[in-house]
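Sharing a chain and its predicted structure for anyone who wants a worked example. Both blocks are below, sequence first, tokens second.
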Amino acid sequence: MDREDLLELLEASLSGVAAPLPDEEEFEDFEQEELEAEEEDLDEALDPSLHAPLELTGKGEEMLFVSGTIERWLSRCPQGPLELGLAGARALAPMVLSWSATLTHALASGPLTLEELEQALAAVLDPEAVEQQLESLVNSGQAEALYGSGRAPSFALTDWGREAISPIVAAVRYEQRYPEDDVLDPDVFDVEAAFQMALPLLRLSGELRGTCRAGVRIPGEEELVAGSTVEVEGGRVTSSSPLLDRVPETWATGTPLDWSEAVIDPAAAGLDVGGDIELAEGLIEALHQRLFGDSGLRRPIRGLPR
């Protein structure tokens, strides 16, 4: 599976189009196509008549950034680094399909039993599909079973499963910068799930404490803000809720593009920030560090007017 295929999977997930999970034969076809493509690339590299100066467009750079984000996420697999190709596709496909079907949305806030998941997703998936997608997430290391005193285990996203929001954020920035008619903007449930997936991972300065409303203005005829009310104590996120404070003491608000840019590179942020600025900026920086920091992915980003 090449980088265009991976990007198409992400774009399909963000637009609400559920692509079928590749089976064993399709994975083998992907691997064969990749080998043939590498042979063609080698032939071209050895042909001097084909060499010519090339320059990436801004859209091309953005696509490479999305691919690089995917590679970074795959390299952090707790079972061992994965690379683009057959092994990477086995991890990427469950992530994309689970986001598209909103299974990750359901798990973002905390553990659920299989029965609870089936009830939560009854409008979009039948029980067999829920079980299959959950099994794929568990087998790939993005979710885990938690056994307590009860008979039925609960299932929760692993830290690596929560970090899967980073390629989605990168894809959102790409789609917001280069919109297409058949790709929908993120909706309320996407925004809430994105924050609920990422926030439990964060570590802030131990001196930071307080409540901050992280709000995303959802495009539409009527103004709508979704996101999370985040409570921080001793540098840790102690709670987060999709119920937003109407009159927050501290806030960070912006469009989906503003937020994706801010998390990828806080220096390029176009968010409206108020109240305890140090807390709001600390939250944004923590999101950046966990999802994109220390990766070699940062590059000059074209800033937009605030």
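Comments welcome. The chain is about 50% helix and 15% strand.
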